[in-house]
Design brief:
Helix content is 28%, strand content 26%. The chain is of the alpha/beta class and 118 residues long. It has one domain: 3-Layer(aba) Sandwich (Rossmann fold). It starts with a strand and ends with a helix.
Length: 118
């Protein structure tokens, strides 16, 4: 299962960074999309949206005000689910995802990993 982290960061204090670290520690493959290019955990933070064909989960670390520009991109990736971490909840986008057969889950990636429910 591959996870795309949207809002990836090289700042160890950010939850997106912690999620990348924990996903890798739990054996998950990750791809990173952020505003600034960098490398963390030997993975490149891309600034351009790539057309992946094997994304199972997208985990959101950008607020709802910045999400509309990602709607078509994420739907086009055809992930199984999108996790809306605390502070990223977005009813409009969650409805759009559901209408496209994609699970919209309001949850915390770190908590899901911690309780074995990821």
């Amino acid at each position: 299962m591959k996870t795309l982290i949207i809002g990836a960061s090289n700042n160890p204090e950010r939850y997106a960074y912690k999620a990348a670290e924990r996903l890798l520690a739990h054996g998950h493959e990750i791809e990173l999309l952020g505003l600034r290019p960098d490398v963390i955990f030997d993975k490149t933070i891309d600034t351009q949206r790539k057309q992946y064909t094997d994304i199972d989960t997208v985990t959101m670390y950008i607020g709802p005000q910045r999400q509309p520009e990602y709607y078509d991109y994420i739907v086009g990736l055809k992930p199984r689910r999108v996790i809306f971490n605390p502070g990223t909840e977005n009813n409009e986008f969650e409805t759009m995802l559901s209408e496209n057969g994609i699970i919209a889950e309001e949850a915390c990636t770190l908590v899901l990993l911690g309780i074995g429910q990821y």
